[in-house]
Amino acid sequence: MTIEHVTRHMRSFAAHVLAAALLVLVATGAHAEQSAASLDREIQDLKKEVLELNRDMFILEEELLFPSNTQVSVFVSMDVGEFFSLDAVQLLIDNKAVANHLYTEREIGALRRGGVQRLYLGNLSTGKHELTAFFTGLGKEQRPYKRGTTLVLEKGLGPKYVELRITDSEAKLQPEFAVREWE
């Protein structure tokens, strides 16, 4: 049975549990002498349990789809001032496009304030892989600017974390784009 089948069955099961629980509550509410407040409290408790079940299923699904021994996560961070305004990032692994992201003003603001965005989460087999990132935006004087950077990644057992970092180089008066592995 594939992961998709397991996930589909788990979601179907959760939906059936919720439907059965609601039917029991409606039947109980119709035949019993419960107050409306008591019934509302039971419904809220049931909703809370369903939300917790949904969260647990999401975590399980992520663990099934992205086991930690093959997992690769790529993050984008930025410390940019006047030399570059980011519009988009494209990520290639072994010359295959795996992620593209167009940034909104709100996302750019969050990155400038120190935020980090997870651009990609996926699986890689052990061995060497080439990771290439292309950054598109506007440079000085609002001119179009596209640069790339590459890292040869040695994937072993365990998860691997990679950061795509955009910084200003005051010495060169231009942006710098770097890829580094987190330890």
Write a brief structural summary:
The chain has 183 residues and is of the alpha+beta class. Helix content is 37%, strand content 42%.
What is the residue-mean pLDDT, rounded to a whole number?
A: 81
Oligomer: single chain
Order of helices and strands: HHEEEHEEEEE
Looking at the structure, the CATH topology of the largest domain is: Immunoglobulin-like
In terms of DSSP E residues, the strand content is 35-45%
Give the C-alpha Rg: 24 Å
Beta-strand segment tally: 8
Query: Which structural category fits the helices and strands?
Result: alpha+beta
How many angstroms separate the termini?
A: 35 Å
- Domain tally: 2
* Amount of helix: 25-40%
Strand arrangement within the widest β-sheet reads 4-1-7-8
Number of helices: 3
CATH architecture of the largest domain: Sandwich
Q: What is the 3D form? A: elongated
Which regions have little confidence, pLDDT < 50, spanning 5+ residues?
A: none
CATH class group of the largest domain = Mainly Beta
Q: Major sheet, described briefly?
A: 4 strands, mixed
For this entry, give a set of tags.
183 residues; alpha+beta; 37% helix
Description:
The protein is of the alpha+beta class and 183 residues long. The protein has two domains: 3-65; 71-182, Immunoglobulin-like (Sandwich), CATH 2.60.40. The protein contains three helices and eight strands. The protein has helices spanning 3-31, 36-65, 105-112, and strands spanning 71-79, 85-93, 96-102, 116-123, 127-138, 144-155, 160-169, 174-182. The strands form two sheets. A four-stranded mixed β-sheet has the order 4-1-7-8. A four-stranded antiparallel β-sheet has the order 3-2-5-6, with no helix packed on it. Helix 1 packs antiparallel against helix 2 (36-65). The longest helix is centred in the first third of the chain and has 30 residues, at 36-65. The relative contact order is 0.15. The model has no long low-confidence stretch (mean pLDDT 81).
